[in-house]
Amino acid sequence: MRVVVTASERRIAGALARDLAAARFTVAGLDELWGDEAAAALHRGDPVPAARRLERLEPGAEPRGTLALCFVLGRTVARGDLGRALPAAGVDGAAELGLVEADGEHVAARVDLRPYAFQDRVGAAEWWIASDPGELATGAPLAEDHVLGVGGASSTLASLQFQDPVGSVLDLGTGCGIQALHAARHADRVVATDISARALRFAALNAALNDVPGIEFRLGSLFAPVAGERFDRIVSNPPFVITPRRDDVPAYEYRDGGMVGDALVARVLGGLADHLAPGGTAQLLADWEYRADGGAGLDRASDWFAPELEYWLIERDRVDPIEYAETWVRDGGTRQGTPEYGAMVRAWLDDFEARGVDAVGFGYVVARRPADGVVRLRRTEQLHGPLGSGAPGPHLEGCVDAFDRLVGDVDAARPVVAGDVTEQRHHWPGSDDPTAITLRQGGGFARTVDAGTALAALVGASDGTLTVGAIASALAGLLEADEQALAAELRGDVLELVLCGMLAPATAGPDGSGAR
Hints:
There is one protein chain. The protein is of the alpha/beta class. It has three domains: 2-110, no CATH class; 149-334 and 360-384, Vaccinia Virus protein VP39 (Rossmann fold, 3-Layer(aba) Sandwich); 401-515, Outer Surface Protein A, domain 3 (Alpha-Beta Complex). It contains 19 helices and 21 strands. The strands form six sheets. A nine-stranded mixed sheet has the order 1-9-8-7-10-11-13-12-14. A hairpin with a 4-residue loop joins β5 (112-119) and β6 (124-131). α3 crosses α4 (48-55) and α16 (392-407) packs antiparallel against α19. It is globular and about 90 Å long.
């Protein structure tokens, strides 16, 4: 089943977009309206400072204020005020799209609608994203069929998406459609699936509102709507939250896949091989259980991939069962200190204890079906620290591309040190020789690498003019080391620094020489 927006709805959505732009209902416009401090409080889930600023405006005098009161804060507004803020779409048009409901001279929002700004390889852009009103507007726990807007996880996955142009993308579990919208900026065709018809309705409306073509919305569970199809890229923020399978614990469609433990993630990762075209990549968010019986999370997750796929699993965080339970009970809008909160936390802890789970890891998944069928990259690591500058997706994309260009013949590569890499040396007082040399990365994952004398010298000589083999040979003479042994050691070190993004093979100049 496919979900589409009618011609009439598309026309109203276009008029609504013009109204929102004319009212400066944008991220910058709203921040200007209620101030940076109120904007920060709103981001933390506290609407009071923003509401105080808006309440001081003359009713209806500021279209941005009317729109913010209605669609961001969930307040009832006068029909005339909203009509003046939406002169092209009108209140009736907004009602036809399902955005508001009118009761005489008063209008209430049925959705959360707010601006969303971002920047990617194509450039800076801004959209309006509609979703279900959250606890901030309703003051109540979420409904089980709640459609989530742009939150922390969805922003993370958007930053993890690769951005090279491709023919086709699958967004598995699209929700409000934000990943599909991002993917459409880099793809000819996008298929977005979800088990929730309400979610697909929001996603299709958001595509129409932001005039993003080329997205097809299909209803169904996991890979069922795309059986037999392959894609150049798959992105997914699947419903990976580990939830007790009990009738008294809400099962939210946007986060709960209806399976025990991390089985949903295992099924998604296990199904990638059947739907990735040769050379195709996948970027996902996922979590994995650590079990007392010796089942380490990253080891368990690495076993879920088909043998023909490459993978790179990066654990960004690891929490104990208590913290995990508290996080997701609060996420559903159940307030701490209530009887319902205590009962649900207990249910989570009972479930973890019964299955021997002592921690849950969360992180990034990058997978690929090699175009030549040769699997070379299978990597797991824990990177729990803060990120460096820039989005992780383009960084990882560049690392994988550099690895591909270099792995066949490391000795012949002409490496170039990345511009964000610095070197730090530690000396005993009065000593000329360093006791430790550390390479630091400003972007990517802000890695630090302890380098020996030979590796530090190789990095220092990596300006794109000399090959790894030539540098290793020269260093062996200077350090009076065995040339073959040193060369073998440096090959492994170079590959590691390439995957870290600290080195990259130079692009050859017109005369064949290396160039930055």
